[in-house]
């Protein structure tokens, strides 16, 4: 990866504690490539959720030997058997140290085991082994962002978004926007997020980021518009309802503010999800 940052929008340092639920996809060798979801994205638990960085498990010359172990580790992770997944993923890497997929599944397993530093090593290795696969670059960007190294993560997200045919380009751009906002770089946060919406008008992270940026800049009507779009795009969460209530207070609609607040408290009492600091992205 080049060290020089080349961002598609106004550059700016960024940092973020937001994270996105990783999705692992398996691509079997055949004329028609079938894909199997590893973990389902969960956009209902917040604007900034760990949603859908992807990994393609392929049967090219480098990864064919690791494929059975990669898929076995994936199955263990899917079933919640973290210890078994870690054991098998280590075997996959030992068997084929050049397989980006083996390093990726090991990174997932290490994260499940609470060993985030080790996970970062293998997310980066996967990105270095497969630099033309947007999902590997995005996965490492996500890891950097969650480690308080978002200034570094922006380059990885931007490079992922430049790769032709990358299916979840909008998610990478949305991640970059959320990270830029946390660093106080509102211009880059807005630019990345708007570009994400040009590719996916219902991108939840981008909508949530723009609602917050507009709110923080005192652009109340724009904040309301993005907030309403965010609430319409995915199931409600406590953080987005709280923001909606605050926006209505600034606009002088106390009745609407109260209704959003009541919905927020009802949701909190139902599932206890009141964490406003999550990030989503693809």
TrEMBL record:
Q: What is this protein called?
A: Type IV pilus biogenesis/stability protein PilW
Where is the secretion signal located? Answer: 1-31
Q: Name one GO molecular function term.
A: identical protein binding
InterPro entries from the UniProt entry: TMTC_O-mannosyltransferase (IPR052384), TPR-4 (IPR011717), TPR-like_helical_dom_sf (IPR011990)
Q: Name one Pfam family in it.
A: TPR_4
Sorted alphabetically, the keyword list is: Signal
Look up keyword Metal-binding and say if it applies.
no
Species assigned in the record: Cognatilysobacter bugurensis
Database matches in PANTHER family: PROTEIN O-MANNOSYL-TRANSFERASE TMTC2 (PTHR44216:SF3)
UniProt feature coiled coil, ranges: none
Q: Which Gene3D superfamilies match?
A: Tetratricopeptide repeat domain
Q: Which domain of life is it from?
A: Bacteria
């Amino acid at each position: 990866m080049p060290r020089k940052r080349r961002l598609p929008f106004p550059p700016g340092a960024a940092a973020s504690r937001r994270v996105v639920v990783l999705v692992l996809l398996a691509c079997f060798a055949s004329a028609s490539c079938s894909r199997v979801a590893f973990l389902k994205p969960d956009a209902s638990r917040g604007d900034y959720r760990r949603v859908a960085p992807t990994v393609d498990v392929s049967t090219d010359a480098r990864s064919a030997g690791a494929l059975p172990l990669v898929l076995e580790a994936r199955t263990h992770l899917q079933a919640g058997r973290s210890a078994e997944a870690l054991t098998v993923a280590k075997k996959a890497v030992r068997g084929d140290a050049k397989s980006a997929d083996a390093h990726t599944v090991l990174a997932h397993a290490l994260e499940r085991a609470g060993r985030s530093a080790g996970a970062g090593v293998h997310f980066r290795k996967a990105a270095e082994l497969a630099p033309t696969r947007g999902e590997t670059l995005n996965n490492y960007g996500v890891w950097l962002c969650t480690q308080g190294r978002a200034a570094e993560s922006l380059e990885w997200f931007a490079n992922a978004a430049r790769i032709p045919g990358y299916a979840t380009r909008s998610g990478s751009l949305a991640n970059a926007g959320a990270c830029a906002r946390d660093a106080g770089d509102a211009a880059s946060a807005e630019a990345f997020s708007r570009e994400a919406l040009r590719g996916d008008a219902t991108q939840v992270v981008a909508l949530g980021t723009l609602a917050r940026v507009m709110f923080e800049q005192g652009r109340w009507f724009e904040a309301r518009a993005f907030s309403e779009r965010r609430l319409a795009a995915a199931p409600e969460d406590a953080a987005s309802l709280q923001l909606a209530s605050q926006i209505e207070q600034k606009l002088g609609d106390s009745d609407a503010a109260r209704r959003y607040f009541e919905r927020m408290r009802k949701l909190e009492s139902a599932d206890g999800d009141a964490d406003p600091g999550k990030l989503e992205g693809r």
